[in-house]
Amino acid sequence: MTDKPRVWVSRPTFPGxxxxxxxxxxxxxxxxxxxxxxxxxxxxLAGQDAVIVGLKDRIGAAEIGAAERLRIVANLxxxxxxxxxxxxxxxxxxxSNTADVLNESVxxxxxxxxxxxxxxxGAAERWLRAGHWQxxxxxxxxxxxxxxxxLGILGMGRIGQAIARRALGFGMPVIYHNRTPLPEADxxxxxxxxxxxxxxxxxxxxxxxxxxxxxxxRHAVGAAELAxxxxxxxxxxxxxxxxxxxxxxxxxxxxxxxxGAALDVFEGEPKVHPGLLTLDNVVLSPHIxxxxxxTRRAMTSVAVDNVLAMFGHxxxxxxxxxxxxxxxx
Length: 329
Ligand code: DGY
What we know:
The chain is of the alpha/beta class. It contains 12 helices and 12 strands. Strands 8-7-6-9-10-11-12 form a 7-stranded parallel beta sheet, sandwiched between helices. α6 (158-166) links the parallel β6 (151-154) and β7. The radius of gyration is 22 Å and the shape is globular. The structure holds (2R)-2,3-dihydroxypropanoic acid. Residues 55, 77-79, 102, 290 line the site of (2R)-2,3-dihydroxypropanoic acid (DGY). (2R)-2,3-dihydroxypropanoic acid binds at residues 55, 77-79, 102, 290.
């Protein structure tokens, strides 16, 4: 038997796309998606040349301890806070993500959440399903318009910009805060104006979080930040759990110091802070902003392309396109 390099795929994805690896690699795909312990991950990574992993797989120095042949960790996600990039770089292992292919579907879903929160869709549906709809009342279920209200975006990468571009259709002015303001042409392209974080908090009617989770951004929105927001404002988190202090958010929502929220991500997910579960002014969603068939297929394809290119195959042979630590190449 030829000694092809080995790839481990930590979850079922799209077999037809993974099959592109088969001419060049011995491929092992886990039949079921689950959370692996540190020692299970270490055992699975040992002996692999490449791995395709997802957000539940936390990969750091301990997990790669016995992975002497490993050359690339391809992450099925644009966010890569599950991977210790420094530890991978120190071991000479490349890390790739799935930047870009999910921008538009995540932006669409952000608007679904924003509109759902503004128009109270989740609560209204629960009420209807519970059999409470006996008569239609003129003043029942009043939500708020979005037109003319200010959209704020914290973190203006490519997803933030895709969210901002859609605001034109809703007639909303856009302000944003980012460590580095966008070049003028990009600001014009999404009709957005850079402001400092305090102004963003004070002036946003809908504040969308679209920044990565790092040690600097953990609890970037906590009790102090929530206190600066308008009591009529709504917070939308499509970025990562941990960027918001969920306990502080639950308190602010319960006390109506903030009108509403829509959350796709949670601190410690899949657990959700119990204080959020009982509130009707928050839309809750199980981390599915990029979950369309087209996008999840595209994400799988990007991971496969990076593995192939890393080993000198495919159109990008030798130039894997999404490497986060190119210094190791
Ligand atoms: C990402 O790509 O980081 C998403 O959160 C996972 O779908």
